[in-house]
Amino acid sequence: MRRLFGTLLATVLVCSLVSPIRADEKEAIAVVDKAIKAMGGEEKLKKAATASWKAKGTITIEGNDNEFTTQTTVQGANQSRREFEGEFGGNKVMGLTVINGKKGWRKFGDNVMEIEGDALENEKRRIYVQLVPILILPLKDKDFKLDTAPDEKVGDKPAAVLKVTGPDGKDFKIYFDKETGLPVRHSARVFGFGDQEEYDEETSYSDYKDFDGVKKAMKTHGKRNGEKFVENEITEFKVLDKVDPDTFAEPK
Length: 252
Hints:
The structure is a single chain. The chain is α+β, with helices and mostly antiparallel strands. It has one domain (22-248): Lipoprotein localisation LolA/LolB/LppX (outer membrane lipoprotein receptor (LolB), chain A, Clam), CATH 2.50.20.10. It is 23% helix and 50% strand. The chain contains four helices and 13 strands. The protein has helices at 2-17, 23-38, 42-48, 117-135, and strands at 50-61, 64-75, 79-88, 91-100, 103-108, 111-114, 145-154, 157-165, 171-177, 183-191, 198-211, 214-224, 227-239. A hairpin with a 2-residue loop joins strand 4 (91-100) and strand 5. The termini are far apart.
């Protein structure tokens, strides 16, 4: 009897040390795997993690639409360079934001400022919230925790919803079209430019186009606290074999 009890106790202890994949985590992984396949497959997406694209659009401030253009270069979710040019109230504005792992900089005109502390963490979060639904593969990394959320509708189509907890411990949601598997929306709580105020951000993805076997959403529509904020259209997209290291260096 004692031997039997000891065996049972050992079995319980062993089982308690094992961390099986939760049922909802399995379901979440299945959603991600379907998205990876829909967007071109793992090998294609690995190559597309290093890419550049140009875009044009409008940003709405106090009810006024202001035109802008951007050029973005990324290497995974931790390195990005975004050049911005627009006109606001008749004034031309040019800016540059670079994130390189634990370093970051902003440049306006000839002024270069290092991004540090909370401002850096806020910028890194803005970047990965925007990039992860595009790159998808980071969702398989240990830095991201996945949970399922109730299905919702995006437009008139049902969408599978994943709650994603990022490296900073904060969560956001990604919505995937249940039929195609493609990402169609993300929603998150983020700080606005200047890091003074938090907003509910929602961005929808549409008009997917194939680039050498990789699907890329050509249009995005963003809302801030439920109001129209940014509309974006990709005008050029390139998968890059390599990036000049100076791309993510401190701007000169």
